[in-house]
């Protein structure tokens, strides 16, 4: 066994070169997605840009755009959270702390249950200084 510590040897190993100069394939491509019925469809906007469109729901007809995980049977607290808070940047320290505490509760509760108990969390941590 003859190992070299030269910089050329380490560069070649990083490039995936095998002895003899041929290139080895270190990574394989992910498998293509299976064809079948999907909850979404892809609509071509331009030749190189596509938009994913959620299925038409009563909320979408009323002008509200919601994520696919908000269904007609979704808890109302969760729907309100989605409509008013989901994806909105937060910069206030107290608000960030509240979201941190609520996220910690995910170890024991589901997000809809946490949102139902949100007022209790607010009362418990209202006197906490940040």
Automatic annotation (TrEMBL):
Keywords for this protein: Metal-binding, Zinc
Record bears the keyword DNA-binding: no
Residue spans of biased composition, Polar residues class: 1-10
List of residues binding Zn(2+): 67, 82
UniProt-listed InterPro entries: Adenine_glyco (IPR005019), DNA_glycosylase (IPR011257)
One Gene Ontology MF term: metal ion binding
Pfam families attached to this UniProt entry: Adenine_glyco
Record Gene3D superfamilies: Hypothetical protein, domain 2 (1.10.340.30)
Full protein name: DNA-3-methyladenine glycosylase I
Gene source species: Aegilops tauschii subsp. strangulata
């Amino acid at each position: 066994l003859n190992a070299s510590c030269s910089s050329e040897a380490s560069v070649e190993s990083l490039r995936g070169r095998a002895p003899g100069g041929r290139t080895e394939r270190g990574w394989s491509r992910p498998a293509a997605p299976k064809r079948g019925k999907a909850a979404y469809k892809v609509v071509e906007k331009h030749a190189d840009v596509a938009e994913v469109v959620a299925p038409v729901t009563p909320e979408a007809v009323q002008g509200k755009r919601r994520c696919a995980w908000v269904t007609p049977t979704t808890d109302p607290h969760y729907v309100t959270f989605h409509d008013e808070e989901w994806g909105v940047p937060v910069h206030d320290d107290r608000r960030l702390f509240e979201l941190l505490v609520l996220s910690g509760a995910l170890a024991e509760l589901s997000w809809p249950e946490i949102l139902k108990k949100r007022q209790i969390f607010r009362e418990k941590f209202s006197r906490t200084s940040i």
